[in-house]
Design a protein that fits this description.
7 helices, Rossmann fold, alpha/beta, 7 strands
Amino acid sequence: MDTWLVVGLGNPGANYAGNRHNVGAMVVDGLASRHDLGSHAVDRLAARRRGADGAAAFKVHKARARVVEMRLRVPGPKLVLAVPLTYMNVSGGPVAGLMKYFDVPVERLIVVHDELDIEAGVVRLKRGGGEGGHNGLRSISQSIGSKDYLRVRVGIGRPPGRQDPAEYVLKDFSKAEKAELPLLLDEAADAIEALVEVGLVDAQQRFHAPR
């Protein structure tokens, strides 16, 4: 049975839990919650600030990641949901380790990450391409020796005024953004499921269509 690896990027620790840069990890936590595998990502923000561990269903893997296995349907392909326990800029090590352990080829790797160059609240899908200055993607590409993995790009928009993008991504979502965050996490989780179920082209037609 085909196995997919779905990696949500972020930084570990309570101080980073609500950052825009952690939206990839939030999406993966939300997908686990959808299938009764853990607490909802939004609800977990407060718990993580209190120093609580990740959702109970996730186990710490030797590749330095929180991992849980699931199926979208039975019978159906297995999904390994993972959130690296390393900092963003060294995400590649855990991803490479998990790909080897679960025998996942690059074409069945899905990386979920924040994207400055996409309007806030918008989800876009692609395979391959550059990293656009994203340190997590750069680390993964270097560690696995390929850029040809699938990406679920979660738009956070550009910072206002002259704010440094590096500072912007490490800030929590604004109050207005938090109100819309559950919808954004759900849409990104839908996109992951679509990639697995119908493939990239059909998923792009669905999620890239004008709304």
